[in-house]
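Researcher: I'd like a structural prediction for the single chain below. Treat it as a standalone chain; there are no partners to consider.
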Amino acid sequence: MRAVEIRPGVRIRWVEVPGASPARVYLHGLGASSAPYYAEAVAHPLLAGRRSLMMDLLGFGISDRPSGFAYSLEGHADALAVALAKIGLRRNEIIGHSMGGAVAIVLAARHPEMVRSLVLVDPHIDPHTPSLGAPGSRGIAAYGEADFLSHGFDRVLRDVGPHWAATMRMAGREALYRSAVDLVRGTSPTMRKLLLELEIPRVFLHPEDAPPSGGRELAASGVQLVSVPNTGHNIMIDNVEGFARAVAQQRLSV
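Model: Treating it as a single chain, here is the predicted structure.
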């Protein structure tokens, strides 16, 4: 485990595997933690040998949970940029799952010196409408903050299933709620528009039976769309071999 202080008393932490450069930086989704989701894939022979940082965003996993942080996509990206700069890492390969994919896109748009390429793992790239009882960010964002903190968190934790709950219970409640609200709201311009306009190598991994909407436009902008069989949303867990092969086979260096 490693840590870096991004402002007085506030630390981002990660699990690191040493190896060659350029580094791969792995980002988790909402309510998750990077090491439990990525460790098996990082150790896969197709991906091993590279310096790999399984980073936890502020408010999640083993990172700090400051109450005064906005937990917006921009806030997460800016905090991550500070952490990477203090570590001495630039032009990294960023691999982001779900909400982590949205943060990765914003990081690349706001701090291009930090990102050489993106691998987006079934990422959030569009705003959505909150809906009480819906899974993930849409259901969380349907609460008011006070209601979520008082009883909504416990209800969501019961409904998400044991795997997700194992990491979600480590998240700060404010962090989980505010991150979900901002993820559903989206950025301006949207994450999709930011992704279309980036000029770095970009790969979009998706389940074989769930291609992204607007795929033709994404492909026309240079985004490589890669379907991974036998997976749901958690591609790196559902098919480790397929995920590792999809990442390893991409020509991401520039």
